[in-house]
Design goal:
By secondary structure, the chain is an alpha/beta fold. It is 39% helix and 20% strand. The strands form 3 sheets. The protein has a 5-stranded parallel beta sheet, with helices on both faces. Strands 6-7-8-9 form a 4-stranded antiparallel beta sheet, with no helix packed on it. The chain has a 3-stranded antiparallel beta sheet with strand order 10-12-11. Helix 4 links the parallel strand 4 and strand 5. The N and C termini lie far apart (72 Å). The C terminus is likely disordered.
Length: 241
């Protein structure tokens, strides 16, 4: 397991590197102290997960994340000393998998890294339902492929996991807390911003008009409901004499 930490705080880098190696002996920790160096190390080392500070010199964390997301779905956890809600939402919208505000507990950080890696695994296929079709949208659960009007729709692992659970419960309201717990983990039941961002991203990719969705529907005060696929009409049979 290779972990890249990009932060300009040398003391923090040393503490995190030591803490991770003590708690997780299988981890190889590599570091960078500014945004440009972080990108160079990322492309050279191909880490399994990235811890990325927002307030970096040369290139800030948001720009580094944007460039990583242009080519890779590697899990990224943002680190920041800022507590503003808008920063968290901005990071999630760009493609961050999680967000931790400094100061944080090393054990909490380790737990979040493990949760990110666990979530990065694709959801298992639904054996009894190899595909789901509604209108011009098709989801093949065996291959994890999503197509719209026959064209492939690229989804990140987290986007696919949110879609998977919504479609698996098509026609039924899935409470926000339940969806958060299934996709991110029990400890994320109150993180409604995560879900808002990912539902918005899915709508922008799947819906013809994201402002007037017909697939992913909001049930105010409750959660989200994926529209149910209509059953084919029965075939008319000739009457027997």
């Amino acid at each position: 397991m290779k972990i890249l930490i990009v932060d300009d705080d040398h003391d923090l880098l040393e503490a995190l590197g030591l803490g991770m190696q003590l708690q997780w002996q299988a981890a190889e920790v590599i570091t960078a102290t500014d945004g440009e160096q972080g990108l160079e190390v990322f492309f050279e080392q191909q880490p399994d997960v990235v811890l990325l500070d927002v307030g970096l010199p040369r290139l800030d964390g948001f720009e580094v994340l944007r460039r990583i997301r242009a080519v890779s779905d590697t899990p990224v956890l943002m680190l920041t000393a800022r507590g503003e809600e808008l920063d968290k939402v901005r990071g999630l919208e760009i493609g961050a998998d999680d967000y931790v505000t400094k100061p944080f507990s090393p054990l909490e950080l380790l737990a979040r890294i493990k949760a990110i890696l666990r979530r990065s695994e694709l959801a298992p296929p639904i054996r009894a339902t190899p595909s789901f079709t509604l209108g011009n949208l098709t989801i093949n659960f065996d291959s994890h492929e999503v197509t719209k009007s026959g064209a492939p729709v690229p989804l990140t692992t987290l986007e696919y996991r949110v879609l998977y659970h919504l479609v698996r419960n098509a026609g039924h309201v899935l409470p926000r807390e339940a969806l958060l717990a299934r996709v991110w983990g029990e400890e994320y039941r109150e993180q409604s911003d995560y879900l808002k961002v990912y539902v918005s991203r899915l709508r922008s990719k799947l819906e013809d008009d994201p402002d007037r969705p017909r697939f992913i529907l909001t049930e105010r005060g409750l959660g989200y409901r994926f529209a149910r696929a209509s059953r084919p009409a029965p075939t008319d049979r000739p009457a027997h004499p």
